[in-house]
Specification:
four-stranded mixed β-sheet, seven-stranded mixed β-sheet, alpha/beta
Length: about 625
């Protein structure tokens, strides 16, 4: 007779047949099956009878202290033999889910243990090994607490919020759910226009801020505003029309200084001194705000978020001064040290371009474009953008395209079948996340919703401000590693053969059509994103390399090529790169980035940068980045 049971952790506990009956009862409820011999028999009685049979079968083996796994195996066998096949399936599914939960909890505890400062290489070699492969580079108390919270939130969302299929796909890296730690809390990227925010002052979410009075206070409050919104979202903050907003601060400074100097200087001398002091104050303000963002003084919900400053189109003297001094301050910043990338993260500077404004020598801001090219040649910044400022990005799911190709084994039908399945899974995931966002109250966004009324307005869960932001937002499906995908399918990427070029366009066109159909079907904005997140590309490549080994031109790279970009090696002439990549810029909705690799073979002087940008201006390219991926 069974008296005790061995649990999974090795402990022995008293045998309780009612626990077996309870598990069978849950499976019966899920299957709605009844006892064939007595359909009217209550499920509680049926469950106890089946549990008794389980105990008897184990007892017949002579075991007095079976393990939990042995008992569960016997339960499955008894259910099948007793005419409850659907109940057996439900029990197997329940058992699988419970196993998954236990394994993830164990993994979570191991991760927490690795993050513990006491788990040093000397005291725990296993923890040291986990740290080497993880991203835990900072060990301050604040960073450790943040890591604990984000890791726990990710684990909870994988276990209890995401569907089992989506959770498994994310863990297997068939696809990647961005900002998983804030899945049920907020949305991702947000464009912020400072000018209407500063008019009359604003609410930071914690306090009311009065209208700034000069360029220094304008810059300081721009930092406050960016910090406030970054506390409420998980992605990037785009400070759109930055030069236009800061130009008001320049004008306020000029007026204040002119009123002061006019009391003791002649008008001409006063104006000259005002211009000189305003230029100095503007430079100091721009330098301060860059350092503010560079040192990561403001915490965000995601360690991967950045502040992006968009500027370059203002042609009035005050706006031009802001652009000039911002570039001067950025030009004195050394290029980012990759060893300390997380501790020395620069804000993204994005110089906007427009015909008739700054692209040709006769344009009013052409000199500022030349200054931006000099700054880019020295530091790699700014980026150059032809497209309009981004809209609110609510959520992103990126698909591992190269893995689809690897598993297809040169079979295009199999490739498209798997891709369609992952696209469907991504769309369903984004729809579920959108429903969660709709359930959030305006109180979760005190800064975002706090600019339109009183505290009573903020407390209303159905605040129209939040609903408006959600309605204007987009749901993005990301693609990355197109080059490696094509190499796996046809042996060459889209810069090496016409066949691969045609297939690449066909593939992206198909994904764009799926997004368009989803938008029409659900009445939401689904967008195709060329994902440029290096961490996702690196994680996909590392996972596929572990699973499928070294595949030349595919997993042999440390990271997959971002989005639809061509690889930097071997070197491709920039005119050819523009010609080959520009059609993709017209197919995708976001992430339209042309990457020019800064390498020993590619000159990156100010003149060459200006030439590349002008050559790309009429080709439909959305944005240009001069980076060092090829090195």
């Amino acid at each position: 007779m069974i008296t005790r049971v061995i649990k999974r952790d090795g402990r022995e506990v008293v045998f309780n047949i009612e626990k077996i009956a309870s598990a069978i009862h849950k499976a019966l409820d899920a299957s709605t099956e009844t006892n064939i011999k007595d359909p009217a028999q209550p499920r509680s009685q049926t469950s106890m009878e089946l549990a008794t049979v389980v105990a008897e079968q184990i007892d017949q083996t002579g075991q007095r202290c079976p393990s939990i796994e042995q008992i569960q195996d016997t339960v499955e066998q008894v259910l099948m033999e007793s005419g409850f096949p659907e109940t057996a399936k439900r029990y197997i599914l329940y058992r699988s889910q419970r196993t998954r939960v236990r394994e993830m909890k164990t993994h979570l505890m191991q991760t927490f243990h690795a993050m513990n400062p006491l788990s040093t290489p000397e005291t725990d070699p296993a923890a040291a090994g986990r740290l080497k492969t993880g991203s835990l580079t900072s060990r301050t108390a604040s960073d450790l607490l943040e890591n604990y919270g984000q890791t726990g939130a990710c684990s909870y969302n994988l276990l209890y919020v995401l569907s089992p299929e989506l959770s498994q796909a994310h863990q297997n890296l068939d696809l990647f759910v961005h900002h998983l730690e804030t899945y049920a809390l907020t949305f991702a990227d947000f464009p912020l226009d400072l000018r209407p925010l500063f008019a009359g002052g604003f609410c930071s979410g914690l306090a009311s801020i009065r209208q700034p009075s000069d360029i220094r206070s304008y810059a300081a409050l721009a930092g406050v505003a960016a910090a406030s919104i970054r506390q409420e979202i998980s992605g990037h903050v785009y400070l759109v029309h930055f030069d236009r907003a800061m130009a008001d601060g320049v004008r306020a400074t000029q007026q204040r200084l002119l009123a002061r100097y006019s009391n003791w200087l002649a008008p001409q001398q006063a104006r000259a001194l005002v211009q000189e002091d305003t230029a100095l104050a503007t430079y100091q303000a721009m330098d301060a705000i860059l350092n503010q963002f560079k040192t990561q003084s403001f915490q965000s919900l995601s360690g991967n978020s950045q502040t992006c400053i968009l500027f370059g189109l203002e042609t009035d003297p005050e706006g031009r001064m802001v652009t000039e001094k911002l570039l001067d301050a950025a030009g004195k910043v050394p290029p980012e040290d990759p060893v300390h990338a997380q501790q020395n993260r620069q804000p993204r500077l994005i110089f906007r371009l427009a015909a008739g404004v700054n692209l040709q020598p006769q344009d009013p801001n052409y000199d500022l474009f030349q200054r931006a090219c000099r700054c880019c040649a020295q530091t790699g910044q700014p980026e150059f953008a032809f497209a309009d400022p981004p809209m609110t990005n609510l959520a992103t799911v990126t698909i591992n395209l190269p893995r689809c190709a690897i598993l297809a084994r040169n079979d295009l039908n199999l490739f498209y079948h798997r891709l369609e399945h992952l696209l469907s899974l991504a769309i369903n995931a984004l729809l579920e996340r959108y429903k969660i966002m709709q359930s959030l109250g305006a109180g979760s966004f005190p800064f975002l919703c706090g600019q339109s009324g009183t505290a009573e307005d903020l407390d209303r869960a159905d605040a129209g401000v939040l609903a408006s932001h959600l309605a204007k937002g987009s749901l993005a499906i990301g693609l990355t590693g197109l080059a490696e995908t094509l190499v796996s399918l046809v042996g060459r990427h889209h810069g090496q053969s016409r066949e691969a070029e045609r297939l690449g366009l066909e593939l992206v066109r198909m994904m764009q059509q799926v997004c368009s159909d989803a938008s029409d079907q659900h009445g939401l904005s689904f967008q195709l994103l060329a994902d440029c997140d290096p961490l996702v590309a690196k994680a996909f490549a590392a996972s596929d390399r572990r699973t499928y080994g070294q595949i030349a031109g595919v997993t042999s790279h440390q990271a997959y090529t971002p989005g639809f970009s061509l690889p930097c090696r071997p070197v491709i002439k920039n005119l050819d790169r523009i010609r080959l990549e520009s059609p993709y810029h017209q197919l995708v909705d976001a992430g339209r980035v042309l990457r020019i690799c800064r390498s020993s073979e590619t000159a990156t002087t100010p003149d060459s940068i200006a030439t590349f940008v002008q050559q790309a201006s009429g080709s439909g390219v959305g944005q240009m980045i001069f980076d060092s991926l090829g090195e």
